[in-house]
Amino acid sequence: MDNLLKPERAALMLTLITEATRDTKLMEHFRKHQKKFRELLYEYYHVDPNDEEHKVRLELLNALYAGLAVRSLFSPYENKELLKELLGKADSFLARKYPVDYMKDIEAPMKK
């Protein structure tokens, strides 16, 4: 997480992505590595290749992390511990086939 939110990493990522829109070889390189990254995620999370919902969940998680990296350039996160905790919950919800039901955890104290 700390590495992901480093401004210099996010700046480099934005520069490379921008350059890839003009350079077809670089774009192909990104696509090749993104495909490999997806395969590793699918293996790690035990995703059935035919399970479209699970694959989309992982795409959402990937977009969330990329977006956080970019946002860290313009608006650094002050409470990184809370961010890590909430991202852990997002990860559990989006990446797992049968996500943890955090609503139960939220609603239980409210009922007391």
Question: Could you walk me through the main structural features you see in this protein, from its secondary elements to its overall organization?
Answer:
- With 112 residues, the chain is mainly α.
- Helices cover 75% and strands 0% of the residues.
- It has helices at 7-20, 24-44, 52-74, 80-95, 102-111.
- The longest helix has 23 residues, at 52-74.
- The relative contact order is 0.13.
- The mean pLDDT is 83.
Mean pLDDT: 83
Shape: flat
Please count the helical segments. 5
How widely separated are the two ends? Answer: 34 Å
Please tally the β strands and state the result: 0
Walk me through the topology.
Blueprint (H helix, E strand, L loop, with lengths): L6 H14 L3 H21 L7 H23 L5 H16 L6 H10 L1
Helix pairs in contact: 1-2, 1-3, 3-4
Provide a compact summary of the structure.
This protein has 112 residues and is mostly helical. It has helices at residues 7-20, 24-44, 52-74, 80-95, 102-111.
List descriptors.
112 residues; mainly alpha; 5 helices
